[in-house]
């Protein structure tokens, strides 16, 4: 949305919201208009509470939590909604390509971070395995007093015997 058009729309919608909020008591239609205008502000600003944020009629009434027919009855809100839709300019191909480049860079960065985290976790796992093995050996020796041979030592000795024969 062009900055000037967007600002003019937001100013107009916010002014009407202020008018409605200043009233001591609102009629049913005014309460619905207030809800719709607040929803329109959220959708235009990209901070929806109840929808995916697309600037559609369905999202407007869903965001405002009013019936579809109610939305269509309030002409001033419909006019502002149409103005918001018309002011949304499609992104240029160059802007879309730049966005794709940016997203790919972010994806690469996240992939590298995951790889580093995976390597760190493998190292932690190796240390924990060694500690569990050492504690198990110490526990066996403490319980029975029997000497337990280190499995790594047994493997090395077996490798030397088969290699030396």
Rg, please?
33 Å
Question: Would you tell me the structural class of the helices and strands?
Answer: mainly alpha
Main sheet summary: none
- Mean pLDDT value: 85
Low-confidence parts, pLDDT < 50 over ≥5 residues? Answer: none
Count of helical stretches: 7
State which percent range the strand residues make up: under 5%
What's the number of extended β-strand segments? 0
Number of domains: 2
The CA-CA distance between the termini, in Å, is 81 Å
Helix content: over 70%
Approximate shape: elongated
- Please write the string of helix (H) and strand (E) elements: HHHHHHH
Please provide a written account of the structure.
- The chain has 165 residues and is an all-alpha fold.
- Helices cover 79% and strands 0% of the residues.
- The protein is built from seven helices and no strands.
- Helix 1 runs antiparallel to helix 5 (75-87), helix 2 (28-45) crosses helix 3 (57-64) and helix 2 (28-45) runs parallel beside helix 5.
- 13% of the residues are buried.
Describe the structure concisely.
It is built from seven helices and no strands. The chain is mostly helical and 165 residues long.
List keywords for this structure.
165 residues, mainly alpha, 79% helix, 0% strand, elongated
Task: Give the topology.
Elements: H1 3-22, H2 28-45, H3 57-64, H4 68-73, H5 75-87, H6 93-144, H7 151-164
Helix pairs in contact: 1-2, 1-5, 2-3, 2-5
